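Anyone? Bumping this.
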Amino acid sequence: MYREEWMTPKRRFLSGLFGGKVDRIPVGNPTSVATVELMEETGAFFPEAHLDAKKMATLAAAGHEILGFDTIMPYFSVQNEAPALGCEMDWGDKETMPDCTTHPYKEAEDIQIPTEEELLKVQSIRTVVDAIKILREKYPTVAIIGKVMGPWTLAYHGFGVQNFLMDTILNPERVRKSLGKLQEISVMFANLQVRAGADAISFPDHATGDLVSPEMYRDFLVPLHKKIVTRIGAPIILHICGNTLNRAYLIAQEHFDCFHYDTKTDVVELKKVLGKSTTTLIGGINNPEVLLFGTPEDVKKQSHFTVKAGVEILAPECAIPLRTPNKNLKGIVEAAKEIPVGQ
Amino acid sequence: MVEMKEISEALMKGDAEKVKFLTEKKLSEGTSPLEILNNALIAGMTEVGKKFKTLEIFVPEVLVAARAMSWGVEALKPAWKGRDVKPLGTVVIGTVKGDLHNIGKNLVVMMMEGTGFKVIDLGINIPVEKFIQAIKEYQPDIVGMSSLLTTTMGEFKKNIEAFKNAGLREKIKVMVGGAPVNEKYALNSGADAYGGDAIDAVEKAKELIGQVKLALSDEPLGV
């Protein structure tokens, strides 16, 4: 028997996001829960769903309608800004995520910051904004989450990951200048989504634990992130993949509302560090072993563990593998309904 | 006299120009390219690998060191001419379909070439048909596949199944790797080995073809 639920999904999610009271543990998706199964059920497939607002909204809404999540997230990949930077794209197919195939920047001076009007003319940008408008109209009680890439991720698109990472050592000044410019695109796109109706903004900035040192994170990103959070008109969820424990003390200083962590990070230790800050936690369910190859029972077990560790909102740890079975994703919602709150 | 250690240290700092300069100088002093490769370049890169494993350094530091190593390997090339060099083995490598992330794969290629493997780098976003075609064409000892994304790592299993169906699985060893992959996942996918990083990948590759000690022997290696 499930308890009575008296909050709308939106109130539940936002309250959880700020560390407040909830009628049950919220379930969210700050990255993407698009699966091949959901595409088949809704008839909205990749790659069209990246560039067609109606299809994007339909596929995204399945995360709430079919899976029962408290949130809807319409931006499925990490690439919708890339065409605005001048990258050429491979939008992939039903079973693959899109990726940029060219990296136009050589110097910081190559980065052109568009106006809002210019940004909105880029189809992949406009699609996200229009999809949020559609979803806001249709789902006033569900939390709509927008998404923008942080400047570090945009620099990967613009310069290429390898070149950009080497520049952090060989040409740090170029890196600093580039990030300073690129943050304008992150802020602009975020506020376009807020105006369209997004309740929160997911902010992946892939200075991941596996890639760069905490010192680089501190020197290049902390000052920028601190400014960015004051300029975006909605709660912001930072997302970083990999083990982030060694930079958790820095994340705690940035004043994001919430942090979407990877299960490679020891969540008990992470909570010890972030628990002292205003930043809550979202995530906890492992993708490759639990969601993709595990069972709903495995999902429930990890959900219980995650909530016990103090995580405020349950979610897959990252964009899920496209072949993830829906029954495992539904398992997160079932677990959330079983787990006692407020004790 | 250039000390081997000087070359290694320049490599560890990622100073490619200095590695090239010192490698050329060391050659001109009469040292054999094999000795320089093993005792300066690979020795430096092994140290880099150790520091990477213990989180003293991260990917950017490894990348600039690998770039320096490739400048050193390049500087050695003229000195190998005329020698009968036999590769340790042949490796066909690529990132799986849908995955365009090639840093890890590039590091593995660089290290494998540096240590004497012949590497056929198919590049990124490689559909299984292309892997199969390359296996038939190059008859490699090892096929390496890389995936950075949790959304693409499922390709390993699919590809290995396809190798089986094409009757090719028994003829090759399969290695996989990539940031979200671990040994358990790799073996579950049907691979023979998992490379945790570029240096580990080289070690595993050597184990797979049973030539663990070759890199340090007196035999000249293919570069």
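Late reply, but here is one note on the structure posted above: Chain A touches chain B through 35 residues (CB under 8 Å).
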